[in-house]
Design goal:
Number of strands: 5
Strand order of the largest sheet: 3-2-1-4-5
Distance between the termini: 60 Å
Radius of gyration: 26 Å
Order of helices and strands: EEEHEE
Number of helices: 1
């Protein structure tokens, strides 16, 4: 899944060691959507190597690719949004107005076109 928005909070990094003795790291952020009529706030994280690969700053506009995952712990369910890619939103240059289909381009203005007038 993907969502476009602006990073509004950097919740920091947490790390530790699992029961199996493996080191882990997670970096958390909050994104506010920019393409909805009613902007929504979404808390998400990058886990493991992705935490170092995608260091975002507050104010960055990104397209976030993510997975939603739910887990059960002691009879309760917890849902997380795990990012796996973040791409910076680039401002596209303004395009020239397109010529409507089926119409030829207008002739250049000048004295040379005076003989081509239909009247």
């Amino acid at each position: 899944m993907e969502v476009k928005g602006k990073v509004i909070f950097d919740l920091g990094e947490r790390s530790g060691t699992s029961r199996a003795g493996n080191a882990w790291k997670v970096r958390e952020y909050v994104l506010e959507t920019t393409e909805d009529n009613f902007p929504r706030k979404i808390a998400f994280d990058f886990f493991g190597d992705k935490a170092d690969q995608y260091k975002l700053n507050v104010g960055d506009e990104i397209v976030l690719s993510f997975d939603i995952e739910s887990r059960e712990y002691q009879g309760r369910w917890f849902t997380s949004i795990r990012g796996w890619k973040a791409e910076a939103v680039s401002a596209a240059p303004a395009a020239a107005p397109a010529q409507p289909e089926g119409f030829p381009p207008p002739p250049p203005m000048g004295a040379d076109n005076a003989e081509d007038l239909p009247f």
